[in-house]
Amino acid sequence: MRLIFAGTPEFAARALEALIAAGHQIALVLSQPDRPAGRGMKLKISPVKEIAVAHGLPVAQPANLKTDSARQPILDARADLMIVAAYGLILPQVVLDMPRLGCVNIHASLLPRWRGAAPIHRAIEAGDDETGITLMQMDKGLDTGAMLSRAALPIQPDDTTGSLHDRLAALGASEIVRLLPNLETGGVAAMPQDEALANYANKISKEEARLDWTRPAAELDRKIRAFNPFPGAFALLDASPLKIWQASPASGSGQPGEILALTHGALHVACGEGALAVREVQQAGGKRLAISAFLAGHALKLGDRLS
């Protein structure tokens, strides 16, 4: 099949690499425009564009797809199918209709659960036992199209969004390669989503990242893992933000935020239910530190509070 691939971050790059390795013809790659990044704010190309350039594939980077000129490269590609993975731009109906077989999305959840922008974060935060990849025939709705394939994997107790992202990216890449031959021959039965089971994974905001110590320790543990690596869950220590990268539920009780125990392995902090054993932290402008290294430079004592 003659394909267009639309994607931007590393999650999508894994799928593009797999399609190239499988010998599929990529007529066009769409990715978001280069954007300033880093301390020097130099223009940085996306992981998908990096792969495309390395393989000599044509790339288009429209700011949106609202105009005829922006859509012309898609039309010129004369594709059988467009594969979309974390592209970041809305595809209008005219674009969805351009490829002969339409557009297929690689979505990082078991639809209809966790439609939307942050399905990996929200699955961990909610305490789901499993998640997965859904390959979906795209329509004008937000992740509402008929499902072509679903593949599940368990969420491990120590999974972060970073670790789960990597496993889902690999799964999505293998699933799209597996699906394409059947899709080309018409051997795939599309299954409508059950709207009664649908919910939405809203975009993550930095304002959500502050920990509320009145909540149960198990809930805070999930939030810390869900917000790792972005945006990083944090508490306040002496009115300054302290990111918490690694922790786990522990026994203990006290006033929410109260330091219950200081050891070389963990800082035990009281929660609304139980306690949290904090093992890795980071001050603003500093490096991530194991709690033993952090405590060597900070005179904390029992009864001090995080807020």
Q: Can you offer a commentary on this structure?
A:
With 307 residues, the chain is α/β, with parallel strands linked by helices. The chain folds into two domains: 2-201, Rossmann fold (3-Layer(aba) Sandwich), CATH 3.40.50; 206-296, Roll (Methionyl-tRNA Fmet Formyltransferase, Chain A, domain 2). It has eight helices and 17 strands. The protein has helices at 10-21, 47-54, 68-77, 93-96, 119-126, 161-184, 217-226, 291-296, and strands at 2-7, 25-30, 35-37, 42-44, 59-60, 81-85, 103-107, 115-116, 130-137, 147-154, 200-201, 234-237, 240-250, 259-262, 267-270, 275-283, 289-290. The chain has a seven-stranded mixed sheet, with helices on both faces. A hairpin with a 4-residue loop joins strand 14 and strand 15 (267-270). Helix 5 (119-126) packs antiparallel against helix 7. The protein is elongated. The N and C termini lie far apart (56 Å).
Features:
307 residues, alpha/beta, Methionyl-tRNA Fmet Formyltransferase, Chain A, domain 2, 7-stranded mixed sheet, 8 helices, 17 strands, 27% strand, elongated
What is the residue-averaged pLDDT? 96
**In total, how many domains does the architecture comprise?**
2
Strand order of the largest sheet: 5-2-1-6-7-9-10
- What's the helical proportion of residues? 25-40%
Q: Give the low-confidence spans.
A: none
CATH class of the largest domain: Alpha Beta
Stated plainly, the CATH topology of the largest domain is called Rossmann fold
